[in-house]
Amino acid sequence: MVGYDAAIGLAYPEEEQKRLTAIRVTSGGTANLKKEQIASLDSVIRRLELDTERKRVQFRPGFEAFAACHQLADWEGWYSPHDEATYLQVLQKIRKEDIVLDIGAGDLRLALRMAEQAQRVYAVEVNPLVVGAALQTIGFHLPRNVQVVCANALDFSLPAGITVGVLLMRHCWHFGRYFDRLCAAGCRRLLTNVRWKDGVEEIDLTAPRLPFEQVLDGWYACRCGTVGYVGSGACVDALPVEVALCPACLPKPEEGAIGL
After folding, report:
1. Residue 232 phi, psi (nearest 5)
2. Residues 252-256: what's their mean pLDDT?
3. Which of these, 147, 153, 154, lies nearest to 119 by C-alpha position?
4. DSSP state of 160
5. In a 3-state reduction of DSSP, which class is residue 204?
6. Ordered alpha helix ranges (H), the chain
7. What are phi and psi of 73, to 5 degrees?
8. Angle formed by the axes of helices 14-26 and 29-55, to 10°?
9. Does residue 8 surpass a pLDDT of 50?
10. Which CATH superfamily includes the segment(s) 57-204?
11. Residue 74 burial by CB count (10 A; 0-12/13-18/19+): exposed, middle or buried?
């Protein structure tokens, strides 16, 4: 059985509706109102998770032409949610003073959670069907400090004051362009899983980057998104070195570098 939450305009399983009703009955004062809002937001996020999987809107006819128009290669334009561990790694690094740019925000589930911790979140998603369905589910529950933009993040004029970019994509062919645009906008940090494909790294966008030729033995990570190892293998346990220009940035990669 399902209940209907008139405050949000969503249908819920009966047990969830009873829980929300109990919260409202016992609420009193600003503190309890805040608790009710958090509980309702949690319910909206759960509904987003269910709706995204159920609707699978990006698989509708016309997507291939849309992806070609936006120069999205392979699976780059397909929104696919990440696991909870990945989201938690991002949330642990969001500060209350942060102004966040969420690139490829998808169904906005992460943007809503970051908004609870950050000063402001700009959520940019290129697929109108994905973000449109999400906004319909969220309804009037969209927080004031979340601004949703349906646009290609490569074309979108970045707002002033962004402190951290979030880029979670399993397939990303434009990492270098995102990286350069964030740097040009004065952004200081980038949280991403694009380069290493394992967990979320925090990139200091203000840190100096070495010329690739100075990496004699060890791992490197480039602003273009390429990571690899050069040398004899004597320093496999060392931390990667940030470089500004690697062989993958050049028309013909040099021999001796193994890209991942």
Report:
1. -85, -15
2. 47
3. 147
4. T
5. strand
6. 14-26, 29-55, 63-69, 84-91, 109-115, 128-138, 175-184
7. -95, 145
8. 160
9. no
10. Vaccinia Virus protein VP39 (3.40.50.150)
11. exposed
Contact by Cβ (8 Å): 195, 221: yes
- The sheet that has 99-103: what strands, in order across it? 146-150, 120-125, 99-103, 164-167, 189-192, 201-204
Whole-number average pLDDT of the chain: 82
* Alpha-carbon gap, residue 175 to 106, rounded angstroms: 17
Contact between 204 and 189 (Cβ < 8 Å)? yes
d(CA 43, CA 37): 10
In tens, the pLDDT along 143-185 reads: 999 999 999 999 999 999 999 999 999 888 899 999 999 999 9
**Closest to 204 (Cα-Cα) out of 183, 190, 194, 193:** 190
- CB count in 10 Å sphere of residue 229: 19
With left for phi above 0 and alpha for psi between -120 and 50, is residue 177 left, alpha or beta? alpha
Identify the band that residue 250 occupies on the pLDDT scale cut at 50, 70 and 90.
Answer: confident
In whole angstroms, what is the distance from residue 164 CA to residue 46 CA?
A: 26
End-to-end Cα separation, the chain, in angstroms: 50
- Crossing angle of helices 128-138 and 29-55, rounded to 10°: 140
Residue written as tokens 């990570």? 221
In this structure, are residues 118 and 145 in contact, taking their beta carbons and an 8 Å threshold? yes
Token pair for 253: 């990669």
Beta bridge partners of 164: 100, 189
